[in-house]
Structure formats: C-alpha cells, structure tokens
Amino acid sequence: MSLDSLDPEIAARLKRNPDGLVAAVAQQYDTGEVLMLAWMNDEALHRTLTTGRATYWSRSRGELWVKGDTSGHVQHVKSVALDCDGDAVLVKVDQVGAACHTGDHTCFDAGALAQGVR
Questions:
Q1: Any idea what the Cα angle at residue 20 is, between residues 17 and 23, rounded to 5°?
Q2: Which residues pair with 44 in a beta bridge?
Q3: 9-59 pLDDT, tens digit each
Q4: How far apart (Å, rounded) are the C-alpha atoms in residues 111 and 113?
Q5: Which of 57, 79, 84, 99 is the most exposed place for a label (fewest CB within 10 A)?
C-alpha cells in the first residue's frame, strides 16, 4: 500500500456514485449532533484517515478542501465508520466554530419539514 493512497481493503469496500464519491456525514463526536453532509473521493477519505482533519471533495469547485483551511472552522476527526452498504461514511469530529458555509453551527437548522411523522 502506498502511503499517499487509500488502503486497498478500504477502497474495495466503498460503493461510489457515478462521480466516484461517497456521502460523508459529519457528526459532533460528544453530543451526536449532525453537523453537515459532504462528499468524499478516495483521496479525501485517505487524507481524512491519515491527517486527522476532515477533507472533502467540492463538487462545485472540482477540488479537495480541508474543512477550516480558509474559514478557521476546523473539524478534528475522532473516528470514521463505513455504513452497511458501503456508500456513506460517518465522520465523528470535534467541530471548531461553524460547520455550515452559512456560518451556522449546523447545516440542519433551516427548520423541520415534519415532526412526529409516523
């Protein structure tokens, strides 16, 4: 295994979308609060696993971005888990500052669509 690429055993478990991406849900490690959804390619996941800083793939810019490099709102990675289907990862982080690009703490505070749905 190369030190600058994703472990082949991990790569083999991933089910990527047609763009080669998996969904990445960022969650505050100690409270369980869901912070944001982003996307990772193999390189972003490798960097996340090896640097301890959450790294994502920006679909709009077509490039990697390390959360907090420009905003200062860093995500320190505590753990990463693959879901049962292999098409998403749960990244438990210690969020410094806002997680959302709007400046909000979480991207999921725009209002509930439904409550108490059965």
A1: 60
A2: none
A3: 999 999 999 999 999 999 999 999 999 999 999 999 999 999 999 999 999
A4: 6
A5: 84
